[in-house]
């Protein structure tokens, strides 16, 4: 059984995962608005992946006889200055999520909650991939600079990403 403190912390993380999905959908909408359909696709898949993360936490709380309590989701920003801005904000956000996952691991260890600690290790590993991918795409966008052709090639590449439940970047 999960402690009340751990239960609340995971409920907070569920909210953060849902916000992440909301943020990436907002970014996708902006990308669609500037006709970067590949970026839109990549970000929509990212949003779906964040929903699966929220569900993974949701199921875990229920499996541990805890109580899932959902909270309001803050509105994400709707305007971005460029594809580089989107990817910089994506990387910053993933770093924020990583910090929060690490805080959950610290709490689980403090609470001697071995089950939660084990469950969280998947997220620790996932965040390595999330930050790496966001960083790589940001670097490519920055290398493209003002070259419309290079940006369109990257956009074409990002259009190939598919969602597979736990999509790999």
UniProtKB/TrEMBL annotation:
The keyword Oxidoreductase applies. Its main location: cytoplasm. It catalyses: 4 Fe(2+) + O2 + 6 H2O = 4 iron(III) oxide-hydroxide + 12 H(+). GO terms for molecular function: ferric iron binding; ferrous iron binding; ferroxidase activity; identical protein binding. GO terms for biological process: intracellular iron ion homeostasis; iron ion transport. The keyword Kinase does not apply. It is found in: Cytoplasm. Residues 1-145 form the Ferritin-like diiron domain. PROSITE patterns: FERRITIN_LIKE. Keywords: Cytoplasm, Iron, Iron storage, Metal-binding, Oxidoreductase. Coiled coil: none annotated. InterPro entries: Ferritin, Ferritin-like, Ferritin-like_diiron, Ferritin-like_SF, Ferritin_DPS_dom, Ferritin_prok. Fe cation binds at residues 17, 50, 53, 94, 127. One of its GO terms (cellular component) is cytosol. Pfam families: Ferritin. Its EC number is 1.16.3.2. Iron-storage protein. PANTHER family: BACTERIAL NON-HEME FERRITIN, FERRITIN. Belongs to the ferritin family. Prokaryotic subfamily. This is Ferritin. It comes from Candidatus Danuiimicrobium aquiferis. The lineage of its organism: Bacteria, Pseudomonadati, Candidatus Omnitrophota, Candidatus Danuiimicrobium.
